[in-house]
Each structure stands twice: as C-alpha cells, then as structure tokens.
Amino acid sequence: MNIQEIIKEKPYLQSPLEFYERIRNFTDECKRQKKTIQLDSDMELIDIVLKNFSMTFQIPYESILFLKEEILKSGINPIKEPTTLWSFPLHTEGLSKEEIERILFIISKPFFVFLNKNEMESFMETGKCPVCGIDSSLAMISINNEKIMICPLCENMGSFFRIGCPYCFNKDSTKIEILLDEEEVRAELCLECNTYIKSFRETHFIKYKDPFLIDIVSLPLDIVVQKRGYIRRGPNIIGIKMIN
Predict the structure, then answer these.
(1) What's the total number of domains in the chain?
(2) Owning domain of residue 107
C-alpha cells in the first residue's frame, strides 16, 4: 500500500505521511550509497548524509555545508556516536528550538541506521534499544504472540516481555489498559508510570509492510491517549513524541 493510496483514504494525515515519505527516502538512499560507493574514510559518510538531506528536503547544499565543517572542528564523531548531533549548537534564524531539534534528529537517523547490524537485539534488560540506547514506543505482536520492540532511529527490532511496560517494567496486567483504534492498533497504557506504547499484530504489518508507516497512520490514537494524560517517551520516525 503506497503513500498516495493511504492519503486518499486518510486525507487528514497528508502532511505527516508526506513528511514520513521524505524521511524514509532520505534514510534509504543514505543506506544504498553507503553500500555502493567506495569510501576512503568513514567521515565521508557525513557528506553522503548531508547531500541526501539537501536533495530530499530541497535545501541548498551550500547552506548546510557549514554543518560538516562545524562537526569536524568540534571533534564529535556522528559515525560512532550519533547522539552527539542532538546537542550540536545549531543556530539558524527563523527556526524554533523544536524545529532545530527535529532537523538534528532527522540528520542523525542514517548514522544510527549505519550502527545497526540487522541482528535482533533484545530490549529485555533495560527496555531501551540496545543498539542506540533510546526509548521505543512501538511494538509488533508476532504470529507466535511475542512482543517485538521497534526502534525509530536505528530500526533495530528486539524481543520484550509480552505483558509489560518498557519504561517502568510494570508486568501487572491489571495495571495495563488497552485501547484500540479502527484498525486495531493498540495503545498499551501503563497505569503505574502514566506512559504508553503502541503495538500492532504481525498480520497488520502485511498490509503496510512498514512498522513506521503504521505508527504514522495511527497518529489519531496518539492524540486520544495523550488527551487522557499519557506520555509517549519514544519519538516516531518523524521525531515527534507529543501530538498537538
């Protein structure tokens, strides 16, 4: 099911769906070039990421080239530690702090994906992604009834307790409430720490073939749950936790 078909069904989601598609194309092209282009050094990955960001979001490359220079001068290494980009002192006129944070989140995503070795790493120990260390608020329930957490940054997928909150490790089913949307995407509300994750059945994955797309399509569920006062700790693929 492609993006335009979904937009026809759900025109109220046009903006986040189109933004999602850009991020997906940006990440996929960075991955493709990393595999196909002969690189003399890892630092050339910065060029790949920034050039693709420029093309995907139609921003003149010259206007973001300073980022590479500042990264090199600062001594941070986004290839080995992508989280360093989040605290990068980017000052751009006309952009709010939230917009700058989202730009840095998007630019960092390919670097996190580069870290992922495509081997399922379990979330059991800390509830966080074991590859990049961030919270995830999205899970798939497999055909075998296992819960598989999905990281929005490095895209690692790993097992977690079938009944349980990845934030406070509450495993008491009487303290976890379930809400369903029209497509049976679930919001699992933890009554202990007032947070939630979303989960969907593997059979639902067959329809969309992309867990992050399911997350975007089910944004109305986030709105309902957040209006009830529950907190989403892990961002979606477009870098949003709170839905206004």
Answers:
(1) 2
(2) 3-115
Asked if residue 175 and residue 101 are part of one domain, the reply reads: no
For the residues 151-180, what does the mean pLDDT come to? Answer: 95
Residue 101 falls within a domain, yes or no? yes
**CB 164, CB 170: distance < 8 Å:** yes
What are 237's two structure tokens?
Answer: 């693929």
Q: Give CA–CA dist 115/125, Å, rounded.
A: 20
* C-alpha–C-alpha distance, residues 169 and 188, integer Å: 13
Residue 41 maps to a domain: yes
Six-digit token string for 214: 């399911």
Per-residue confidence band for 66, with pLDDT thresholds at 50, 70 and 90: confident
In angstroms, how far is the first alpha carbon of the chain from the final one? 27
Structure tokens at 72: 């090199």
Q: 226 falls in which pLDDT band (50, 70, 90)?
A: very high
Closest of 50, 45, 3 to residue 22, by C-alpha: 3
Tell me the pTM: 0.88
* Residue 233 covered by a domain: no
- The answer to whether the beta carbons of residues 212 and 218 sit under 8 Å apart is no
pLDDT tens-digit map of 181-210: 988 899 999 999 999 999 999 988 888 889
Q: Going by DSSP bridges, is the β-strand pair 195-201/147-150 parallel, antiparallel, or unpaired?
A: unpaired
**Rg (alpha carbons) of the chain, rounded to whole number:** 18
Question: Does any domain span residue 238?
Answer: no
